[in-house]
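Q: Two folds, back to back.
A: First:
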Amino acid sequence: MTSPSNEGKQAFDIAIIGGGIAGITLAIALINRGIKVNIYEQAHAFGEIGAGVAFSPNATQAMEVCADGIYQGFEKVATKNQWESKEKVWFDVVDGYHHDKSMGNQEKFLFQLTNELGQNAVHRAHFLDEMVKLVPEGVSHFSKHLDVVTEEEGGKLRMKFHDGSEVVADAVIGCDGIKSRVRQLILGEDDPASQPQYTHKYAYRGLIPVKRATEALGEENAVNAKLHMGPNKHILTFPVNKGETMNVVAFCTNSDPWPDSRHLTMPSKKSTAIKEFEDWGHNCVEIMNLLEDDLDCWAIFDTADHPLRTYYKGRLVLSGDAAHATTPHHGAGAGFCIEDSAVMAELLAYAAAKVNGGKVSKNKVLEATFAAFEAARKERTQWLVQSSRLNGDLYEWRAEGYGSDIEKIEKELRESNEIIWNVDVRQMAREAVEDLEKRIA
C-alpha cells in the first residue's frame, strides 16, 4: 500500500462533493497521502441520517487501507454482541411471525450467520464525530449546494454553488449520496439512472434502552443481533452505544407509491408501527410497543432498476452511494463506500507520484485514474445493489424461487455474504493501481 507521505502534495487539487461517510473517509485517506482536498457539504454542518450502521470484515480492512485513524475511530465507538458466545455472530435469524406460546419470549431459531468479526455496529453520528476529528481545519466548507460544473480554458473545473459562490479544482468526486447532483451531471438529468427509485419498502427506526428491552424480551434478545423474518416484513435488532441501547429497524413492503419523492422520511407514530406488526409473534409486538411515540418512517430507495452505465465522465467521478445507492439489506452499503475510498486513495496517490515526476499530463492521468477506479469497483458495487434488493425479499419470504423455503434462503444468504466479507481490499487496490499503470504507460 502507498504509505502516508507528502509525495502527492500540490499534484492535484481535489474537490469532494458531500461530507457523509464516503466523502469524509476519502478526504482523510487523501490527506493521509499528502493530496490537497476540499470537502463541499450541502448541510450547515457534518451530520449523518439514521442510527445504527454495521461494518463487516471487508469494511474494517478498507478503513486500515485508508488511514489508521479511521479504524481507531471505529473501534472507539463500535458495539459488538454483548454475549461472549455471540462474538462471531453477525445475526441470529429467527421466525418473528409465528409464535409458539410454549416457548415464552423465545422465537423459533432458523439459522445463524457468522464472520470473523461478528456484529460491529456504530451509531452513524458517533462514527462521523470521530472522523471529523481527523479532518484539518479549512478543508470542510458547508452550505454548498452544487449547481453546475464547467471546464475552463486552462483545464480547471469550475463548480458553481446555489449560494452564488464558485471554486475551481482539478477533479470533482461526487460523494453526495443517493440523491447525487454529480450523478445527474455525469449521466444527464433525463437519464433514468440519475434518480434513485422507490423499492416499495419502508422502515420504522427507533432506539430502545437495553434495560427496558431486557425486561420485555429477555437479555439474549436485547443485547445480541437478531433478524426477525416474516411475510412481507422483517425486523433487525442489534446493540449500539456500547450495549446501552438496542437499535430497531422494522421494514414493511407494499405496492403503494411513496407519497413524496423529494423527502425520504416522513413523521409517523408508534401506533402505526404497532398496527403493522399486530399479527406477528410476541417479541416483535413487544419491540413495537417499546418504541417512542413519535417515529420517523424511512423510504427505501436504490438504483437497482436503472443501473449506472458509467461512474465517471472526464474528471468528474462518483464514489459511495452516489455511484451505487443500495438498500440496507446486506448491511454493507457504508462498508462499500469505505472500500471505494481505499481504492480511490491508492489510485490518486500513484497518479500524483507520476504527475510530480513530470511523466504524464495531469488531466489525462486523472481521467485514466477514474477509468481504473470504475474498472475496479463497478462490477462488485453494482452486484451489491442487486443482491441487497434480493435480500430484502428473502427476509420477507417473497423472493421468486425462494418463498419461505428456509434452507434455500439460508444458502443464498451465506453465499452472498461470503462475496462481501471474504475479499482482500489491499489486493483489490493493488490490482487497480496495476491497471492504472498500464493505462498511463
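A: Second:
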Amino acid sequence: MIVYSIFATVSWFIIERAGRRKLFLWGTVGQGLSMVLVFSCLIPGTEAAAKGAAVGLFTYIASFGATWLPLPWLYPAEINPLKTRAKANALSTCSNWLFNFLIVMITPIMIARIGWGTYLFFAVVNAGFLPLIYFTYPETKRRSLEEIDLIFAKGWMDGRGEGGKEEERKGLFWKGDAYVRAARELPFLSDEEVEAEARRRGLVQEGEAEAEKTLRMRSIGDKEGVIDDV
C-alpha cells in the first residue's frame, strides 16, 4: 500500500506535464514488463526466483498507481462532448468496476489452474492495448474542453478526406489515427481563436458564439467586481 500510495500521489504532479497519452503508454509497458518478470521468475519454481516475482508485483503496482489508476477517471470526461459526457462517465465508471470485479474473481482460479500462465495472460493483455492506445488515443494535456472538441472535429474532417493534403490522408492508419494526428497538429488556442475555429468548422453558429462570448465577458466582469469590492 505504501508503494501504491506514493506512485498514485506522483500522478498528480506528472499527469499535466507528461500528458495522458504518454502515461497510458508508459503505464501499459511498465505493467506488461512487470507481468513478464513475474511469470519468468515463477517458471523455475524456486524460492530464490520467486523473490524476483515479488519485485515484479511491486513494479506493477507502481506502474498502475501512477498511470492507469487515475487516467480512466479523467480521460473519458475530457474526450466526450457535453451532450454525452455524463452518460459516458457513467459507462466508463461502471465498466471499470465490473472489470475490477471480474479480475478479482477469476485471478485465484487462474492461478490455481495454470499457475505462472496467469501472469503471461495479463502480459499479453497489456501488450494488446499498446496499438490501441498509440493509434486511437489523442493527447489532451493543457487543452480546454473546447479545444478537445476541435481536435475531434479536425480528426473527423481529415479522416473523411475533407481536410489536409491527399498524400497526408493516405497515411492515416484508420480514422482513430486522424484524431491522434489532429491533436498533434492543432496548436494551443486562445479563447478567441477557439471561437473562430469552431465557427469555421461549423461547430458553433454565429448567434451562439456571440451569446457565449457575452456570458463569458459578464462572468469576468462579475469576478472583477468582486475583487474590487474586496
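Q: And?
A: The radius of gyration is 22 Å.
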